[in-house]
Amino acid sequence: MTAVPARRPALRVDVVTIFPDYLAPLDLSLIGKARADGILEVAVHDLREHAHDRHRSVDDTPYGGGAGMVMKPQPWAEALEAVVAKAGPTERPRLVVPGPGGAPFTQAMARELAQEPWLVFACGRYEGIDERVLDHAREDLGLEVSVVSLGDYVLNGGEVAVLAMVEAVARLVPGVIGNAASLVEESHEDGLLEYPVYTKPDPWRGRAVPEVLLSGNHAAIAAWRHEQRLARTAARRPDLLHPSLGDAGLEVRLATPADAPELHLLMLACWVSEAVSNDRLDIPALHESLDDVVTAIAAHRTWVARRAGRLVGSVRTSVRTTATGADDLFVGRLCVAPDQQGRGLGRRLLALAEDDATDAIRTVSLITGARSERNIRLYRKAGYRLLPGPPQIAGTVELVKRRRTGA
Ligand code: JD8
């Protein structure tokens, strides 16, 4: 009978530490189940097994003096070599070394690490690990080594950080979380914090559940939840809304006349696809001259997004008075360079434009081609609804959403 080859885990994790029991929580809950199901393989190794002196010591006094002790290189080298030796000659794990001075651990990094087949985490203690261990791992063992920080505060060692990192990474591995759909609208997944959640009973201790959630009106619920996400993010994490829009490589600022030539070019490029999908050329953006763009930058709040100096996106807003006399924010010329689309930049520029408006603004509206499905889908997801009735301009649709007070 042919032996069924053991299913390779989607992710293998090795952890080296002097406190193996610290990692016991990885036996529990979804991570524990995923290990039992063979989706994840997690092994914890005691560094002291590689300390051979009578006291199995793993630390010594720091060269150059100073408080505390430093972890010795030899036990670490042996421990890492033993872990790496377990795999085939070509396989090499990615080594993650938690440290307060490391690169910030983010959801984006969690997504990146979740693509790796094999991760090794080195938990330091005392004042840290002799730096030559990392050089040895990179240069002699050929490992990609990342020093990563959980956050701007000081822990006593790397174990707590590894617990958090392994959980954040492992839950992104297919099959670990039951309904992957729930991963989509999470905080930090798309640059906005999550909306508030409620369950039975309603009311509870005299506190009611927001009515819209009981309405069954999914568009209204989506709009409310998006509003809540914007409001919370603006209140608690404005850094996520400005200016790099949660994307370290992006610079966003108000446009100046110097931006006009590139902006004119970007708009022409972006509205060509609108003209094609709507089979018409009488689209205002296609008929704007460079001077018109310069004039518009002066007349409207125009934001430009640059990545590595290149203008990759823009949005323009103006305030108009509706028939009822209320102030409405009109969002226009939202555009993202074709090669930069699909990364959430359009939605973030839209959120920035909305958030930039004063409290007096009660509605936000915009117009797009009736056949611009992709744009309409983005606006709907952002909580806009199609305005009923004939559009001002034939072949277009108008979308609007209400802003909550104090949004
Ligand atoms: C690894 C030793 C303790 C750190 C002297 C206190 C991560 N966000 C984070 N804060 N602290 C750590 C961390 C702390 C560690 C080790 C990670 C290994 N220590 C040291 C330097 C100052 N003691 C961390 N990730």
Automatic annotation (TrEMBL):
Subcellular location: Cytoplasm
UniProt KW tRNA processing keyword: yes
Swiss-Prot/TrEMBL GO biological process terms: tRNA N1-guanine methylation
Keywords per UniProt: Cytoplasm, Methyltransferase, S-adenosyl-L-methionine, Transferase, tRNA processing
UniProt EC number: 2.1.1.228
Catalyzed chemical reaction(s): guanosine(37) in tRNA + S-adenosyl-L-methionine = N(1)-methylguanosine(37) in tRNA + S-adenosyl-L-homocysteine + H(+)
Principal localisation: cytoplasm
One Pfam family hit: tRNA_m1G_MT
GO CC field: cytosol
Gene3D superfamilies: 3.40.1280.10, 3.40.630.30, tRNA(m1g37)methyltransferase, domain 2 (1.10.1270.20)
Domain of life per record: Bacteria
Residues noted as binding S-adenosyl-L-methionine in the record, renumbered to the chain: 124, 150-155
GO molecular function terms noted in the UniProt entry: acyltransferase activity, transferring groups other than amino-acyl groups; tRNA (guanine(37)-N1)-methyltransferase activity
Chain ranges of the N-acetyltransferase domain: 250-404
InterPro entries: Acyl_CoA_acyltransferase, Alpha/beta_knot_MTases, GNAT_dom, tRNA_m1G_MeTrfase_C_sf, tRNA_m1G_MeTrfase_TrmD, tRNA_m1G_MTases_N, tRNA_MeTrfase_TRMD/TRM10
Keyword Endoplasmic reticulum attached: no
Family as reported in the entry's similarity comment: Belongs to the RNA methyltransferase TrmD family.
Oligomer and partners: Homodimer.
Record function comment: Specifically methylates guanosine-37 in various tRNAs.
Cited NCBIfam families: PRK00026.1, trmD
Name of the protein this chain belongs to: tRNA (guanine-N(1)-)-methyltransferase
Organism whose genome encodes this protein: Terracoccus luteus
